[in-house]
Amino acid sequence: MLSNLLIKNYALIKHLEMSPDPGLNIITGETGAGKSIMLGAIGLLLGNRADAKSLYDSSEKCVIEGTFNLAGYDLAPNFEDENLDFSDECIVRREISAAGKSRAFINDTPVNLETLRKIGMQLLDIHSQHDSILLGNNEFQLRVVDSYAENADLLKKYQSDFNAYREAVKASEELKNRAHQLRKEFDYDQFLFQELNNAGLKADEQEKLEQELTILENAVEIKERLQLAHAYLDNPENSVLDLLKNAVGSLTQASRLVNDYDVLRQRAQSALIELRDLAEEIDQVNGNVELDSARTEVVQERLDLIYSLLKKHQVPAVEQLLAIEEALQGKLSIVMNLDEDLAAAEKKVTQTMEKMLAGAKSLSDRRKKVTKAIEKLILDRLFELGIPNASLSIQIAETSPSPTGIDSVTFLFSGNKGIVPQELKLVASGGEFSRLMMVIKYILADKRKLPTIIFDEIDTGVSGEIAKKMGKMMQNMAHNHQIIAITHLHQIASSGDAHYFVYKDHSSDKTVSRIKKLTIDERVQEIAQMIGGHNPSEAVLHNAREMILRE
Known about the structure:
Belongs to the RecN family. By secondary structure, the chain is of the alpha/beta class. The protein is 57% helix and 18% strand.
């Protein structure tokens, strides 16, 4: 339950703080005094959008903080689902900076608005005076049935199965589309792959072939140059090797005279050995260079094929052609296995659909099982609230699977004798909507472990004895829930365990909204004024006191 509420710098509220009673709390005040502003601030704790324009003082930040006592409500799993620490005392805080930036905290842990909404809906239920219109909405009617049947866990499981089915259908459709495209491309892809595969490409062959072709095309000149180089080195008549031999001999003679010259001899000897090897290698290379026109033609044809494939696939090197060949092979392999993959995808669609429909059937059975009980409870309570001839029929029709199951729920209602029940939105009056919503909140209250329920003028369109009975219903609800009721009716206001009065304070330069908890005497005065105006008579004051004491 809400044990403390703090609102700072919001709309007409400069600073407001209240500690509601655990039972039935009544809030009254003149229209425009700030009651709806309070609800707007509380809505921020539930994740509603923030606006910097709503700040009382645009130079300071706005703070709304709610302290909740959650002992006995078994809400720890909800916090664990959001990776939040749980304790019996929970502090929810929302801040809006002067620049309009919003931040939210749960037990001092920063959270996003989605998390704030998920936790907030477990702490508070706000029913505004306009929400009664929702009762005519079929989706809301379905939620009423689910809440009474306590279908939350079953619905959560079904929704998981429904999402799995949708994912399976999506995957199957994507595979079918891909299969269609792949099959359209199969013949061409197979041709391209066969062409590359038949080419038998190797990663480094282009460079080697280009080098070989250069040698073959210039073989005559290359052999001439190599022969001349060899002749310079090892010509029997006058060669570099003969001259170097003579140099080695001379240095040998000199080193015998001076030992230090032996280093020069060694170097000359090494050069002689190296040049002999060089001469032999040149001669060997020269022997390998052939004048082979047939080989030239083969190499040229091979390079023409490679160049053609490079141009066709618009890539610069053979390595990319090999990568394309591998990718084509992968695509062809997929096509070869498509029938098997499509069958597996269809099987998964069937399996997930069967599981989803089984869950939907269980959900539907639970809904149908409780409709008569809901009808009876609502009609019994409506009788108490002055609609003795009401008739109600909850119709459940089968529909296509949706996130809520395979059921469409429609409340057919008539508030008058002899009138055929029709859809609520077509026949119910404002006062009937208010009483119906009150009854539904009443019968669902014990189905949800909800700490706090706020009613914002749910009594619209009712008065007199009916209003008194609505107040009694709120009292009964307050045995297991904290109730906060904003009302303009003295019959309901007199039912409260605590009474708060909202008013405007014009004493400073800027009007502010304030709230105060009324004493018994102040409650008598307020309720008397609600009955008889600003100057109530003694009889009215006496009547107001009796109403409070009697309640």
